[in-house]
Amino acid sequence: MQRRTGMGRSILNNIVHLFYSTILANLLQAISLIALANFFNAQNYGMFSVAIAFTFVILFFTDLGLSNTFLREGAKDGVDLETVVSSYVKIRMLLLIFISVIGYIAIHYVYEDKNLIYMMLNIMFLMLIGLTWQNIAIAYFQLMERMKYIALIKVVSASVVIIITCLCIFGELPVYTTARLYAFGYMIGGLFSIYVMRKKTSMNMKVAIHKGLFWQLGPFIVSGFLIMSTPQLAPILLNYTLPLSMVGVFAVAYRMPAALYQVPGVIAGAFFPVLFKHYNQNNLEEHTKLNMLQIKSMAVVGICMTIGLYNLAPYFISIFFHEEWNNAVEPLQILSFLIVLQSLNIAIADGLTTSGFQNKRTAVQCIALVIGGVMLYSFSSIGGVRGAAYAMVLFEIVALIGYIAVSTVRKKIVFQIVIPYTIYFGVTFIGVQYVLQTYNLIALVLNTLIVVVGIFLYDHEFKKLILSFIRKTREKDYITKQGI
Question: What percent of the chain has pLDDT over 90?
Fold first, then answer.
């Protein structure tokens, strides 16, 4: 089996591949969801959103945290990579079969609305199979640091989904048929993913399962479930506090920040395997430096995207949606702050996971999810969609406080990043919005320039880390190309 090329395949190149593919894939997915929101009425889109959310929660149980242990075991020196990959694929396939049956039973046990149940059955199975296959291939190429293949998988899958969605809308197919074909698009993407993976690796399903995949799996199971279920918490829980039409409004507002977060998330995906390597090789100082660079980079990108989405929210809703969705503007502006908060949370949490403190990450997630669930239920009952949006933001703030509290480098995170970045972002944002509150596009450009220039002028250490990082990755790529 082909081995990784090690540090020579730079994080910078990986980020580039993931960046353009994530933007393009999310753009295509956003177009398909916008088209469906305009094609469905609020009631049907509410059912569709609940079905999608339930599918993503069930999807986790086809993984159970194995992707993280797979990356950990595969990153170890001297490991039999073919055995690790084959074991990972075998376990995921067995889980897929078992969880599909459990999911069918759960749908009929949890829900009573026959229309909602039928919608979920049309979506869940095909989408579950397709996403599981995609995730297997993505985990493999992430381990091998071959991000261009992850890019290919994402773009092809998203393209298939939008083509099918457009055909359904132009053909004016029934709602449930459209939902079924939408899910079938993900299955086609899954088949393509496995095809690409099979061309680049060899597997032997007869090998004994690599037991290292189960070592310290417990915290990853809990943590993975929380990561997967948190974004789906709102559509599922709001089904009990709001009418399905209002759930549809929240889903329209929530889809955009959820999709856009994937862009700073690209940075996390590129850093993750390298952070594991530094820790496995006992390079703790390099691990800390790299994680601090990750946190700062994701913070800057998250801030810029929050500013952009907040100011563009009125234009997005008015241009892409019918008038019945106009009440999604304010929730969308509130939810735009999820991008910067999630950027910080994931980066800090990755530092915990890759340095042997997954149990701490899991504990914080558990506490935050419980508090977030209570806030979401109570706030939505009182304040409707707007209350639900505030609850989601507060949930991320609770998680941020928790991650900082358990981090071993909490002082650096607080005094070098959180406090100065928050103060500067908060003051400039409030000031620009107060002065240019009716000139959204000017406010967007001006605020972004002020924030980026100000952070780079203030944070000399950040500039040094970036320049050092770029220099090292270029040197490593040069050494690899020369065969040294």
Answer: 18
Q: Nearest CA to 92 among 142, 42, 135, 122?
A: 135
Residue 326, token pair as written in the block? 């106009």
Quote the CA–CA distance of 238 and 337 in Å, as a whole number: 20
Q: How far apart are CA 79 and CA 70, in angstroms?
A: 11
pTM confidence score:
0.70
Distance CA(97)–CA(87), nearest Å, equals: 16
Residue 11, by phi and psi: left (phi above 0), alpha (psi -120 to 50) or beta?
Answer: alpha
Query: pLDDT digits over 337-394, tens only?
Result: 999 999 999 889 888 888 878 788 888 888 888 898 899 999 999 988 899 999 999 9
| In 111-216, alpha helices (H) | 114-143, 147-170, 175-200
Six-digit token pair at 379? 């706030």
Nearest to 72 by CA among 365, 356, 364, 407: 356
For residue 297 the two structure tokens come to 């980079």
- Say which amino acid occupies 277: K
Residue 415: its H or E element: none
| 3-state DSSP assignment of residue 336 | coil
- Provide the pLDDT for residue 403: 93
pLDDT tier, 434 (very low <50, low <70, confident <90, very high otherwise):
confident
Residue 466: how many other CB atoms lie within 10 Å: 15
User: Distance between CA 168 and CA 153 in Å, rounded?
Assistant: 23
Task: Decide if 128 contacts 101 (C-beta within 8 A).
Answer: no
Which stretches within 114-146 are classed as H helix? 114-143
Secondary structure class of 99 (helix, strand, coil): helix
Report the alpha-carbon distance of residue 290 to residue 279 in Å, rounded. 11
